[in-house]
Every structure is written in structure tokens, then in C-alpha cells.
Amino acid sequence: MRRAIGLILLLVLAAFLVSGMLLVHPFGAPYPTDMDDYIIENAQNQTGSNSVVASVVFDYRGLDTLGEATILFTAVTGVLLLLRAQKRKEGGS
Amino acid sequence: MLSKIVRTVANQLVLFILIFGLYVIAHGHLTPGGGFQGGAVVVSGVVMLLVAFSSQDLKKSVRERVLSIMESTGALIFAILGFAGLGTVFFYNFLVGSPIFGRIPPTGPNSGDFWTGGFIPLMNFAVGLKVIAGLSAVVLAIALFARGEEMEE
Amino acid sequence: MENIADNFPFVASALLLAVAFYIVIFRKNLIKLIMGIAMMASGVNLFIVALGYRTGGNAPIYTDVPPGPMVLSVPQALTLTSIVINVAVLALMLTMVIHTYRNTGDIDSEKSRKLKG
Predict the structure, then answer these.
(1) Hey, is the C-beta of A86 within 8 angstroms of any chain B C-beta?
(2) How many domains does chain A have?
């Protein structure tokens, strides 16, 4: 019973997703975006970097990358902490 | 621990993987790639060593404190470079026009000058350091934990 | 109908998302659940990159680029950020599964008594 309800919900969700994808702009012809055109045109002069993606990641959107670095740091700290706490508990008991 | 053939080949190959990873990190502002991608390449070399040799062998040569210091250094360099441009705006590229990495490439397609990019190469380096240390620490910690051990301090 | 053929990358990412949702809903093994979450992330990344594609576009890197239009660069940069975050979250989730296995003796979320309900 639960499985049937889940399947129906899943089908509804899949139909919803696919029908939503059909409303997106046609593939290969995005709507005109001033921001992207500006960045592609001026990235070389403003940041001096040939790679526009690198200049977006580190310069125009540097704050996002700072958050990403924080997440990576926190995740690594969490992994090391979890694996070590387990070991200490086993040794103590 | 795998056979002697695998160990010898891994021993020779890890240098090339290391150099390729560092190349991807250093040329992040000219070619596809950057800090994270190059760091992931280097960590794949570490994983290859982990498969070829036993995790106890790596445990002797890699200490957790070193990896921890490396990762914190990367994060600190990144944050300091971000805050250094605060006179204008946060994450302002203050190195454009300065002697280090300050050249501005000609507009349009060109064949790439290494000394361009402002602080982007330095940021790539910081992120690469961070990713190398962080992912190596995760992989080593999980591999050692599977054997019921933990990394040395 | 021709819309489906035109928008095939978008539909493919939607189907990938649907398969990932199936895995997350119906699989009880925690490792498989994490695989489903990783697939979901891949679907979203594929969708974001496909959003910014221009027909015949080059990668937005000026080093020896052939003439032609350039692909939108902000979606690619945000996908890069998203991939890094996925790697971090995946590592943390796998560690938590290891922890669960050590504590409850099973990675099946239905069989393990503490995770049931």
C-alpha cells in the first residue's frame, strides 16, 4: 500500500518535472542575459584572466567561493572528528 | 598491499600525477581547470598510493597535523586575499596592474600569458592547497578507520 | 513533441532526477540512498550547465579560442561551486554511514532498530 502510494507520487513528480522542463527556453538559445554578456566582454580587462569561469568563481562571485571553502573546511573537520570520537569511545569502554 | 609490479608502477607514476595536478592548479587562469580540479587530480594520486600500498605505510609518512596546517593555511590565504581588497569592495582584484600577476592580456583570443590574472592564480593555489590537504585527510582517515586505526597526530 | 527533441538535455536531467527520487524513496540501504543523493546532484548540475548552452558556443576561455559565440559563464562557475559542495557533503554522509554501521551493526535503515520509524 505504501509502495503504491509512493509510486503514484513519484510518477506525478516525474510528470511535473518533465512538463516543467518543456517550458524552459529551447536548448542552445538562452534568453538574452545582460550579466553574462557583460562578464564575457569585460572579464579580460577587469580581472586580467583569460578564463572567464575562473574570474567569475574567484572575483565576481568570490563570496560564494568563500562559502564553498567554509563548507569544505567544515565537512573535513566533521569527518575527522566523527572518525576520532568513535575510536576514543571504543578505547575507553 | 598489492604485488611488486603494481607497487613499482605506482611509485613511478605518482610523480607524474603530482606534476600534472600542480600544472592544472598553476594554469587555472589560462586553461580549463583550477584549484579544485588540480587538487582532485593530486588526491587521485594519493588514492592510487593507498590502493597499491597498505594504509599503514602511508600512515607513517603523512601526519594529520601537517594536513591540518596545510588546509588552514589555504583557507587563511583565501580569506586574507578576499579581505585585502576591502578598500574598494570585498573580493576586489587589487593585483591587476601590479608587478606580480598584474599584466592585462589583449582583448579577444590570445595565446595566454602566465603573469596575468591578478590574484586569481594565488587564489587557485590556496584552494588547491586546501583541497589537496582536505580530501587526502578524508580518504586517509576513512581508509585507516576501516582497519580500526586512526591517523597519527 | 518536437519540443521534447529540442529540449532533450533538460528532459534527460529531469529523468535523472526522477530516477534519483525513486532510489531515495524506495531503497532502504543507506549507501544506495547516498548514491541516489549523488545522482540527484548530478541531475541538477546537468540542468544548470545545459541552461547556459548556446548553439555552437565555445567554452568561455580566451586562450586560443576559435571564433564563435561563448557559452554563458555564470552557470558553469556556480556548477563548479556546487560540485565542490557535493563532494564535501558526500564525504560527511559516508562517514555518518560508517558511524551508523559501527553503532547499530547494520546499514539497512529498516532493520536497524534505532533508525526505524
Answers:
(1) yes
(2) 1
